[in-house]
Amino acid sequence: MAQRISPEQGRETLDSGEALFIDVRDPGSHAMARIPGAVPLTQDSLDDFLATTSRDQALVVYCYHGHSSQSACDFLTEKGFTRAVSLDGGFEHWRQAYPDQVEES
Ligand SMILES: O=S(=O)([O-])[S-]
């Protein structure tokens, strides 16, 4: 079962700069607004991501509300990532709690 972190822990992790934030929402949502520095992960980018990302890299996975990110996290864990966690509340909670930590384009 996916490891989960609270939005507060997510914020601390973002501030520490030690984790890669992974956005599994649809690419259009990612393009519009995202957690600063987050990278989109889609079916199209998956093979590349798996081929180039260290299995020791800390990952914080988020979706809209914190549900599908848990399955994504389980998937990444099956693929060998040892430090993948799912962000509780997803981006929708995040943007309410930390509007100053949202990158928009
Ligand atoms: O993105 S979601 O699965 O939390 S609705």
TrEMBL record:
Keywords for this protein: Cytoplasm, Transferase
The Rhodanese domain, residue ranges: 15-103
Gene3D superfamilies: Rhodanese-like domain (3.40.250.10)
Record Pfam families: Rhodanese
SMART domains to which the protein is assigned, alphabetical: RHOD
PANTHER family attached to this UniProt entry: FAD-DEPENDENT OXIDOREDUCTASE, THIOSULFATE SULFURTRANSFERASE GLPE
NCBIfam families in alphabetical order: PRK00162.1 (NF001195)
Protein name: Rhodanese domain-containing protein
